[in-house]
């Protein structure tokens, strides 16, 4: 197991103890905003001011927080484990990178990125984006946050399926298992032979796809799990 390939999916729950809201918990983001208004291409076409306001507020909130014990433990795992450690995050914050993780796939994009809806050019997002901001490449007034909304294809899916098929251990941390394709990763990795572990506050919607369950706050469950992996 010393050189096992570890593939780790993270969701909003891993950043909760840093102070960022989750989506589907009581009082979470979807209790305050209608998902179809702020996280779909149609919502952006209808009211770009509202969508920019929503993501500007989240970009500001993400700039004000620090990684917690779970992010730090995963960065230590990547530094000290002899095999490959791949983090696939659904999160648009940069807390894994801030903790020191290097191999991080942002499958739902990043708050730090801007994307031209006309020509697909990407550039670093300013703290506040505005409707009609021009694209630096084609000048079209169609700048949007570089995040993946419902109905859009998540990023780096080919690489992700390959990592899942090569995984010796697959873990999902802080994700409710409601959003596909991420919710199918445990089943995919498990069928390809990985040992599957869920580390979440509570049982997720796809708890049956995991061989091992560790329920509790990520800041409490992840550091000892990492210690165990490094001591195996
Ligand atoms: C803690 C904790 C602590 C709290 N410690 N834990 C019908 C059936 C099946 C699928 C579909 C369907 N109809 C449509 C679809 C597809 C659709 C989908 O899944 N819809 C479902 C709602 C049914 N998916 C898509 O459209 C995706 N695209 C797609 O499928 O393309 C086709 C394709 C697939 C494969 C290959 C090629 C093409 C796109 C999904 C885009 C999701 N976008 C969002 C918003 C954008 C980013 C942003 O603004 O941040 O991404 S939605 C939102 O949900 C966000 C998140 O990344 C995502 C997942 O949420 P997450 O992270 O799981 O958060 P929560 O809040 O749900 O859960 C937190 C968990 O943490 C909870 O369990 C807590 O208990 C726990 N917790 N505190 C540990 N301290």
From TrEMBL:
<comment type="function">
    <text>NAD-dependent lysine deacetylase and desuccinylase that specifically removes acetyl and succinyl groups on target proteins. Modulates the activities of several proteins which are inactive in their acylated form.</text>
</comment>
<keyword id="KW-0808">Transferase</keyword>
<feature type="binding site">
    <location>
        <position position="135"/>
    </location>
    <ligand>
        <name>Zn(2+)</name>
    </ligand>
</feature>
<keyword id="KW-0862">Zinc</keyword>
<dbReference type="Pfam" id="PF02146">
    <property type="entry name" value="SIR2"/>
</dbReference>
<feature type="binding site">
    <location>
        <position position="116"/>
    </location>
    <ligand>
        <name>Zn(2+)</name>
    </ligand>
</feature>
<feature type="binding site">
    <location>
        <begin position="90"/>
        <end position="93"/>
    </location>
    <ligand>
        <name>NAD(+)</name>
    </ligand>
</feature>
<keyword id="KW-0520">NAD</keyword>
<feature type="binding site">
    <location>
        <position position="218"/>
    </location>
    <ligand>
        <name>NAD(+)</name>
    </ligand>
</feature>
<comment type="similarity">
    <text>Belongs to the sirtuin family. Class III subfamily.</text>
</comment>
<dbReference type="GO" id="GO:0008270">
    <property type="term" value="F:zinc ion binding"/>
</dbReference>
<dbReference type="GO" id="GO:0005737">
    <property type="term" value="C:cytoplasm"/>
</dbReference>
<dbReference type="InterPro" id="IPR026591">
    <property type="entry name" value="Sirtuin_cat_small_dom_sf"/>
</dbReference>
<dbReference type="InterPro" id="IPR027546">
    <property type="entry name" value="Sirtuin_class_III"/>
</dbReference>
<protein>
    <recommendedName>
        <fullName>NAD-dependent protein deacylase</fullName>
        <ecNumber>2.3.1.286</ecNumber>
    </recommendedName>
</protein>
<dbReference type="InterPro" id="IPR050134">
    <property type="entry name" value="NAD-dep_sirtuin_deacylases"/>
</dbReference>
<keyword id="KW-0479">Metal-binding</keyword>
<dbReference type="InterPro" id="IPR003000">
    <property type="entry name" value="Sirtuin"/>
</dbReference>
<keyword id="KW-0963">Cytoplasm</keyword>
<feature type="binding site">
    <location>
        <begin position="174"/>
        <end position="176"/>
    </location>
    <ligand>
        <name>NAD(+)</name>
    </ligand>
</feature>
<feature type="binding site">
    <location>
        <position position="138"/>
    </location>
    <ligand>
        <name>Zn(2+)</name>
    </ligand>
</feature>
<dbReference type="GO" id="GO:0017136">
    <property type="term" value="F:histone deacetylase activity, NAD-dependent"/>
</dbReference>
<keyword id="KW-0378">Hydrolase</keyword>
<dbReference type="GO" id="GO:0070403">
    <property type="term" value="F:NAD+ binding"/>
</dbReference>
<feature type="binding site">
    <location>
        <position position="58"/>
    </location>
    <ligand>
        <name>substrate</name>
    </ligand>
</feature>
<feature type="binding site">
    <location>
        <position position="119"/>
    </location>
    <ligand>
        <name>Zn(2+)</name>
    </ligand>
</feature>
<feature type="domain" description="Deacetylase sirtuin-type">
    <location>
        <begin position="1"/>
        <end position="232"/>
    </location>
</feature>
<feature type="binding site">
    <location>
        <position position="55"/>
    </location>
    <ligand>
        <name>substrate</name>
    </ligand>
</feature>
<dbReference type="InterPro" id="IPR029035">
    <property type="entry name" value="DHS-like_NAD/FAD-binding_dom"/>
</dbReference>
<dbReference type="GO" id="GO:0036055">
    <property type="term" value="F:protein-succinyllysine desuccinylase activity"/>
</dbReference>
<dbReference type="GO" id="GO:0036054">
    <property type="term" value="F:protein-malonyllysine demalonylase activity"/>
</dbReference>
<feature type="binding site">
    <location>
        <begin position="11"/>
        <end position="30"/>
    </location>
    <ligand>
        <name>NAD(+)</name>
    </ligand>
</feature>
<dbReference type="InterPro" id="IPR026590">
    <property type="entry name" value="Ssirtuin_cat_dom"/>
</dbReference>
<feature type="active site" description="Proton acceptor">
    <location>
        <position position="108"/>
    </location>
</feature>
<feature type="binding site">
    <location>
        <begin position="200"/>
        <end position="202"/>
    </location>
    <ligand>
        <name>NAD(+)</name>
    </ligand>
</feature>
């Amino acid at each position: 197991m010393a050189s096992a390939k570890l593939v780790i999916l993270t969701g909003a729950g891993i950043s909760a103890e840093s102070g960022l809201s989750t989506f589907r918990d009581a009082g979470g983001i979807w209790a305050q905003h209608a998902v179809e208004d702020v996280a779909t291409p149609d919502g952006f076409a209808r009211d770009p001011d509202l969508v920019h306001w929503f993501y500007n507020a989240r970009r500001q909130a993400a700039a004000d927080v620090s990684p917690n014990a779970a992010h730090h433990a995963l960065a230590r795992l990547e530094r000290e484990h002899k095999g490959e450690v791949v983090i696939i995050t659904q999160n648009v914050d940069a807390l894994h990178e801030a903790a020191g993780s290097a191999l991080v796939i942002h499958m739902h994009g990043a708050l730090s990125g801007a994307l031209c809806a006309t020509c697909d050019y990407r550039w670093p997002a300013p703290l506040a984006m505005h409707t009609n901001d021009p694209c630096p490449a084609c000048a079209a007034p169609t700048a949007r946050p570089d995040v993946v909304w419902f109905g859009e294809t998540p990023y780096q899916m080919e690489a992700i399926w390959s990592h899942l098929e090569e995984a010796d251990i697959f873990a999902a941390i802080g994700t409710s298992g409601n959003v596909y394709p991420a919710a199918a990763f445990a089943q995919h990795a498990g069928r390809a032979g990985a040992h599957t572990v869920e580390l979440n506050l509570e049982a997720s919607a796809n708890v049956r796809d995991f061989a091992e369950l560790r329920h509790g706050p990520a800041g409490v469950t992840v550091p000892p799990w990492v210690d165990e992996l490094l001591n195996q």
